[in-house]
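Thread: S-adenosylmethionine complex, take 2
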Amino acid sequence: MPMILYRTLIAAAAAVAIVLGGVMLNYATAQGGRPDVHFVPTPQQVVDRMLELAKIQPGDFLIDLGSGDGRIPITAAKRYGIKAMGIDIDPDRIKEANENAKKEGVTDKVSFKQANLFEEDISKANVITLYLLERLNAKLRLKLLSDLKPGSRVVSHAFSMGDWKPDTHELVDGRSVYLWTIPAKKAGAPVDRRGS
Ligand SMILES: C[S@@+](CC[C@H](N)C(=O)[O-])C[C@H]1O[C@@H](n2cnc3c(N)ncnc32)[C@H](O)[C@@H]1O
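Output below.
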């Protein structure tokens, strides 16, 4: 092959790679990043029990980290009349959750935000719900301990928090549900860095 043709082909391939790379980057940015776990909804019976275990009181503020179709915040607002929020990285899930909140008549109490759950301020919540993965729960431990006030409740469907001892662990229709309470912050106490 003549050298000039060879160089032209290499330049063309490089240009295609750059354009494709840009398109893929734009796509990932538009999506707000890749989900760490895909959407699988918590069955309603399990949602109901998670909220019972959290012993929700008037004035509580719930955040579901990775909120999917919004069923946990929506149920919390409908059944307990509290304000609730869902955070999800997937814009399609946020759209669906907003539509569901509208259908259920709770848009005055519930909001959804497209964001990476690891980067959001969750300090205003005193109830956190999770249906993620064991390793994502582990990664969240330090954030939960540092952001949440003592007495805040964390409820997880299916996955534990490693060696954090739960206040309650029970099976609901064969699925594990865990509850932890954020302990008082002790001056000079060692910080749990295992999840960081
Ligand atoms: C297993 S689903 C749980 C949905 C809902 N919480 C429920 O229990 O029905 C996990 C959700 O987390 C979202 N997700 C995954 N990684 C995320 C991240 N880094 N930040 C925010 N949301 C994320 C997914 O898009 C998905 O909707």
